[in-house]
Every structure is written in structure tokens, then in C-alpha cells.
Amino acid sequence: MSAASTSTAPDAATSSEALPTAQQHGIKEHSDGRFGFVPVQTRSARFKSFDVADFPAVTGREAVWKLSPVAKFTDLTAGELDGAVYDFASTPHADVDVTWVDRTDARIGGAGAPEERAAANAWSTFEKALAITVTGEEAKEITLTRSALGSAPRAAHTVIEAKPFSQAVVILQNTGDARISENVEIIVGESANLTVVTVQEWNADAVQLANHFASIGRDARLKHVVVSLGGGIVRVNPSVHLAGQGSDTELFGLYFADAGQHLEQQVYVNHDAPNSRSRVTYKGALQGAGARTVWIGDVLIGNTAPGTDSYEQNRNLVLTEGTRADSIPNLEIETGDILGAGHASATGRFDDEQLFYLQSRGIGEIEARRLVVRGFLSEIVQHIGSPALEERLQGAIEDELRGTEGN
Amino acid sequence: MSVLEIKDLHVSVETDQGTKQILRGVDLTINEGEIHAIMGPNGSGKSTLAYTIAGHPKYHVDSGSILLDGAEVLTMTVDERARAGLFLAMQYPVEIPGVTVTNFLRTAKTAIDGEAPAIRTWIKDVRESMVRLRMDKSFAERNVNEGFSGGEKKRNEILQLELLKPKFAVLDETDSGLDVDALKIVSEGVNRAKENTGLGLLLITHYTRILRYIKPDFVHVFVDGRIAEQGGPELADRLEDEGYDRFLAETPVG
């Protein structure tokens, strides 16, 4: 468990012709190769490119990779990916168009750009993008299911566009085998109200590296929910650009890591317009040897974003020995004129007093633990806004908890 | 008739300064239908007795026994004690985020009875108890104790006392922090539970105030980990007038 916060850095280090030469005693480059390295201090200044060739080979020391098991997916960061279209199933709705579009589609690249090599590798490779276009002001829900991606390394690109004033809940359901690096662009038009839920229930050895880039227009709202339960290595990194005045985002995450699972999410909220609002709430449970979770939450409040209201939090519940949860909230504020900005992080074992209270009412220890975990995680489930999915996920959490009892 | 017997109970806790002995030989017998008040100054071990009966892991029993109808309570787990018929109304009930009062009550009732309560009568029972304790019906859907005021938490404890119907209940400073209206409501709830089920009560309190509303059959004065004096309700009146100074003066300093 760790926590860190940064504030706006001064301008990058200045250089001068008069600096001592490399031959001078004591200034020889260190063997770690970091000499002269100036880390990117502000989140928005990180290097971005659509081209995989612009990124050096991944070492695992990069800020975006340092908590990930990079040796286990070199095929996705350095190898050749299959960018062909794949099979999916989607529930039909007259006001939601789901279709493959060419790389030349005007929306592609509109919501963000890769900041690391796996994302750029996918971007360089995908042949067609799957475009989900939402129109119509009535509430509606569609589910897009991918269950046959296979275990060969693959690239994918998805565009979800909510037209101005439209409204929908879009559920991305992921099961089966996968070795995938992918980018998802989410474009929320003016005054639109979009919910995107991505559910990861992959097979046990699946690897998924996903980057979601969202751009939110004036007075528009995005609710984004990441639910990661199944898979070997699952990294879903949502990056939200609050680009329009009065734009609003709520980012929720729920993850349950079992023995040997690596579940990671790096969340970035960029407040870039007046009166924008963000709430980030991620909750995770860990059980079993080697269960590992990573949460990094970056919030940047730019000088373009007076009146910002922002809060991010991450909570982890450690159920057994031998697990590790990293939790790193970062808050950068470039303007003094804000409504609020806060962050919180807590990682802990069961509260023994909660257990005592429940047991003192006759509830057995196993049932008491289950109640506490279910309660802890259900806060996220309750916010999804799809009754059928909420009910199914409550069941899925029950299944995960039953796994605890076997330990 | 049920009986709860506490025999020569010695209890200690681990502190930063090492093991600290708190209870130094407590003997107490409570019969079903009796109300015993345990009074005493701060730090005399009253709450330790309450938590030891309930089985809180923080307290180590060095010697002695607690028998419920002859069965040793000290070897039971916390939940087994509750299922055997013991109940502790806590001084500071904890919050359980994400678990609604409704869900919690039903789960507890099911655990205590060994079977789920009949839905229709159960919902009616819960609703009626809540009305009598002046608890708004919105409480049912709130998370257990989360955001409850001090008085609301105490009423929630008595709600459980009424619904779970234990044989013996320990009320640990249930009166503390309550204004007079809340104190009356809570006391009425306790008296109702006793009328309905005939349970035995161990009422732990620092003040005599609650004894105006819940009439004890016996009063025990706790000082320095043991019972220093016992008597009938008149002992409470005397404490009201004199306070605990008389007992504290007898306690060796250091």
C-alpha cells in the first residue's frame, strides 16, 4: 500500500552550455541509466503517439508499467498483433448502431492518444474499428459480448459515440480466452448521458491491456464502470477528458483478485473546462496467494477549469495473507478557483469489530465475512444502473466469496 | 427456568504496558425475569464484564466460568453464545457499510432461530417494533448504524433485543448519551421486551438515571474489578445521593 501526491512542478530543468563535462569527477553517468532523466511532472505532458515505433521497448521501469508484470505479455507490447475483425454478439436497438468502420473514420483519434507501447501497438495494427453510435433521447441499454477472441495476440479498436442529447447504457461483456491490447474511444456529445460498463470475466489465463479514452462535451455526462473479476492479467485504464463546460463524470471500479490474478486500473481525469465535476470510486477485494491489484488515480485540474468539483477514492479489502494492493492517488491542481478536490485511499483487513458485532447477533463467522464483503462491494454494483446486470454481478461476487471458504 | 451464573471470573487484557488484570473474581447469578443493575465508577470493569460474556476476543479469561443453564459459555464462539440466548446491547455499535438494517435483521433472526422467519409476520413484527421505538421506516433500508445518531444507534440495539428475543441481555451503558426523550423510548423498549419474553437483564450503567425507567430487582456496585456491595433498588437511591466516593476511598491508591 502506498500513497503519493504531486503538485504542479516548476518548468523542466534548464540546461546550460557552461555545465561541467561528462569527464569531470563525480558526474559520470550512473549505471542505472537514469542520469539526466527528467521525469514528466504533469500528467498531461506525458508523451503520446499513435505509432508504436515512437515508443522504445518496454523495460518495466516506465511510470505506466512499473507495477505490471510486463515480462508476461511481451507479445502485446513488442510482438505482431492480429488486427482483424472478430465475432461479437450485441443486443439490437433501433437507436444504437453497431458496425465496423474503416481506420479513416473521422471519430478515430478524437478522444485521446496512446501513452504507452501496447496501446500504440494496437492502434498501429487494427484493421477496422467497431463503432457503437448512440442516438435518441430515451433511456436504453445494449450489451455487446465478446466471447471468442481466442488466445493469439490481438489488437482491437472500439469507438462509442453518444450523439448530442442522446442517452444509453452500453455494456461491454468480456468472457472466454483473450490476449488482447485494445483502445476504446468514448465520445460523449453535448448534453448526452452515457453509461459505459466494461465487465471482465475472462478465462483464468487471459491477458487484456485496455485503454479507454473519453472526451466529454458541454453539459454531458459519462458514467464509466470497470468490473474485473476473471482473467490472469487485466489492465483497464480509463482516461477521461472533461473538455466541455459543465461536463461531468463518475468513474466506478470493482475488482476481486483471486490467487495469482493481476488486476490493474490506472485512472486519469483531466479537468479542462469550467464547472466540470468528477467522482472516482474504486473498490477491490483480494484473496489468495499472489492476488495483486493496482490502482493509480491521477486527477489534473487545469488552469482552464475554474469551479472544478473533484473527489477520488480507492478502498481495498484484504481477505487473506499473501496478497498485495497498490493504491496511488495523485492530485495536481493548477488553479486556486475550485469548488473542491479531494482524494482518499485505504487498504485494510477485515474490521474485527464489524465481525464481532455481526457474530454477537448469532451470525456465523463465514456468513458474517460474506455480509461485510458483499456490503463493501455492493456500493459499486448499486451504481451501475442496469438492474439485470447488477443482480448478475451480485451473484458473481457470491461465487468469488465462496472461493474464499475453500482456502 | 433459565439461569446465567458467573463464577469467580478473572479477566485481563493486553495493553501497551503489558497484561492488565481487570476482573478480579466476579460472582453473579441472574435468573430469568430478573433485572440486575451493575453500577460503578469509570474503569471498574463493568464493560469488561459485558464484553467477556459476549466473547469479545480482546478479553482473556484467566479463570472462572460463565454458565448458561449449566452449559459453559466461555468455550462457545461469539455466534454460538448469541444462538444460545445471550445478547449484548453495545455502548458503541459499529457501522456495517453496505448491509441494510432489513438484511441484517433477517440474517440474524435466521441464524438465531435456525430457520428463516415467516416473511409476512416477520415484516409486520419489524415494522411494529420500529414504530414503537419511533424509528422512521426509512431506517430499514439504511446501512446498519451508518450515519445514525447516538440515539438512533441505541434504538437500533433495542430493536434487535425485541426481535431476536434472547434469554439474557446485557445492556452496556445503553443510557449514555441519550436525552430524556430517547431514554424513555429506549427504556420502554427494554421493559416491553421483558414483558413479552421474560428475559433476564444485566443493566450496566454509570448513572442512576435509567433506573427511574427500568426498575432493577438487584443492584451491584462494581469497584476495582469485583462486586463491592449489593442490595435492592434502595442501593441505587443511596448511590444517587452519595456517589461512588465511599467505595473509591476504600480502594488502595496505586
Short descriptors:
heterodimer; A: 407 residues; mainly beta; nine-stranded mixed sheet; 5 helices; 18 strands; 40% strand; globular; B: alpha/beta; Rossmann fold; 8 helices
Written description of the protein model:
- The complex is a heterodimer of chains A (407) and B (254).
- With 407 residues, chain A is mainly beta.
- Helix content of chain A is 14%, strand content 40%.
- Chain A has helices at residues 74-77, 117-125, 352-359, 365-381, 387-405, and strands at 89-90, 96-102, 128-134, 141-146, 154-162, 167-176, 179-188, 193-202, 207-216, 221-230, 233-242, 248-257, 262-271, 277-286, 292-301, 309-318, 324-333, 340-349.
- Chain A has a 9-stranded mixed β-sheet with strand order 1-4-6-8-10-12-14-16-18, covered by helices on one side. In chain A, strands 2-3-5-7-9-11-13-15-17 form a 9-stranded mixed β-sheet.
- Chain A starts with 73 loop residues before the first helix and ends with a helix.
- Mean pLDDT of chain A is 90; it is low at 1-18.
- With 254 residues, chain B is of the alpha/beta class.
- Chain B has 8 helices and 12 strands.
- In chain B, the strands form 3 sheets. Chain B has a 6-stranded mixed β-sheet with strand order 6-9-10-3-11-12, with helices on both faces. In chain B, strands 2-1-4-5 form a 4-stranded antiparallel β-sheet. A two-stranded antiparallel ribbon of chain B has the order 7-8.
- In chain B, helix 5 (150-164) packs parallel to helix 6.
- Chain B is globular and about 55 Å long.
- At the A-B interface, helix 3 and helix 4 of A face helix 2, strand 7 and helix 3 of B.
Shape of chain B: globular
Strand pairing plus helix content of chain B: what structural class? alpha/beta
Which second-level CATH architecture of chain B applies?
A: 3-Layer(aba) Sandwich
Q: List the domain count of chain B as a whole number.
A: 1
Number of helices of chain B: 8
- Listing every helix as H and every strand as E from the N terminus to the C terminus, the arrangement of chain A reads HEEHEEEEEEEEEEEEEEEEHHH
Number of strands of chain B: 12
Can you tell me the CATH topology of chain B?
Rossmann fold
Strand content of chain B: 25-35%
- Uncertain parts of chain B: none
Approximately how much helix is present in the residues of chain B?
Answer: 25-40%
Strand order of the largest sheet of chain A: 1-4-6-8-10-12-14-16-18
Please state the overall shape of chain A, judged from the principal axes of the Cα atoms: globular
**End-to-end Cα distance of chain A:** 23 Å
Q: How many discrete structural domains of chain A?
A: 1
